[in-house]
Specification:
By secondary structure, the chain is α/β, with parallel strands linked by helices. It has five helices and six strands, in the order ββββααβααβα. The chain is about 35% helix and about 15% strand. The N and C termini lie far apart (about 45 Å).
Length: about 170
Amino acid sequence: MIYTMEYASPIGKLTIAGSEDSIMGLWIEGQKYFGSTLRGEQICSGQPPVLKLAAKWLDRYFAGERPLQTELPLAPVGGEFRQAVWKLLCEIPYGEVTTYKKLAERVAVGRGLKTMSAQAVGGAVGHNPISILIPCHRVLGTDGSLTGYAGGIDCKRYLLALEGVDITV
């Protein structure tokens, strides 16, 4: 059973999804791939403690605090490649950014490959089912451009500015 709850944020309505003990999704209203990892699951409204914990985490985040992803039990649904990319996203510190190219280089090293396609990594980043908590908004184009955010570039810009990232390119 998957529970969902809505959360009113400065970037719009968010939907948080999870089981009794872990967060499986967090989507911005209208986000590309909204709810895609929950297909076939029995969905019900409810607020188990883990969803309330995520809402409190978001309260702190949007208040300008720096809560850690490790404070929440995250369980994104996806294949091995996507899981590897999402794990690397969690390693990007608050207020810092990286590029799709740099992520691809790290994935290649981790998989024992000479190279990895930045586009393939971008696809995994774009399918991140737990926005904000798994900080895909911290990934930029090689030239520093605000590209490729499933929640929309305006949301990406807001989140990076909230974290103190200089987004003037």
